Amino acid sequence: MSAPDPLDPLDPSAPLLRVEGLVKHFPIFKGFFRRQVGSVRAVDGLSFDLARGQTVAMVGESGCGKTTAGRAILRLVEPDAGHVYFRGHDLPAAPPETLRALRRHMQIIFQDPFSSLNPRQTIAQIVGRPLQLHGLAATEAEAEAQVKTLMEKVGLQASYSTRYPHEFSGGQRQRIGIARAVALRPDFIVCDEAVSALDVSVQAQVLNLLLDLKEELGLSYLFITHDLGVVKHLADEVVVLYLGQLCERTTTKALFSAPRHPYTQALLSAVPHPEPGRARKRVILRGDVPSPIAPPSGCRFHTRCPLAHPRCAAEAPAEHTVAPGHVVRCHLYDGNSAPVDILAGAPNGGR
Ligand code: SF4
Description:
Number of domains: 1
Bound molecules: iron/sulfur cluster
Number of strands: 12
Order of helices and strands: EEEHEEHEHHHEHEHEEHHHEE
Strand order of the largest sheet: 6-7-8-3-9-10-12-11
Structural class: alpha/beta
Radius of gyration: 22 Å
Number of helices: 10
CATH superfamily: P-loop containing nucleotide triphosphate hydrolases
CATH class: Alpha Beta
Shape: globular
Strand content: 15-25%
Helix content: 25-40%
């Protein structure tokens, strides 16, 4: 029997998730008196929507803030500023009982399935206890029966529920992580590099399982990944991050057919061409990603951007809408919505 749900009815016009100006900085302390000497600016003003039934991929190099953004959205880390609206509720402002009910509908699948599963608990305990805690199973026997059904749903034998995490392979452990995430019948799951620790052959199986569950259970995903092949396979929309800020946000189709931001174009140039025998011209970015403790002035990408011009170091670009639902943060689109090609160079030497 389902627990009473204290949530208001869903406003059909509101997106399932709306992120507005999300900020998360981590202070850095030093010395005996733990004086704050700076902060890691992990996420700086991120905004996007995720519609019910949609998969949004969040991509970028390691250290771009995508994992922090996912955790701040779920309030596993407390954001410093901004709003996260889920089912129309402003999460930080929601009363405790509403927040608790909302949390049930927002789950996460971690990158490392082993460290995210308690080694001292059986799978029946790991997956079953939350069911009882949230009132989705009245008794232990009821929880056990639900766990067995979930095990089969994720492609594992029901009898495995009495085993411990170390008795499973990496792919099987990730299936258990998925069973735990879907057990509470959520609307929304953050998949944080959910397949990147797995062998390539197992990755495909787990991705297909996630796609099947999305259809069957009506889920919506925020898929955090550095793998653009995965993005193309399962995302409806993509958010590209660089040093904690949005570079580009659009549909997967538009991103792969006509990427606008120079950083997105450089990322995509590394993806193999879909037609056999054809190769893309690779754009090699100079240098490494700068430190998020002291990000570059102006456009954070200017130290590596082949199209950078003097204004880029001095002034932070605004977000420009270049087509319906297609947002780019770059000075080159200031009053211009035509695609700029990183390989052809900046029009008029930049703006
Ligand atoms: Fe490159 Fe300047 Fe655009 Fe930044 S604003 S991406 S540095 S052209």
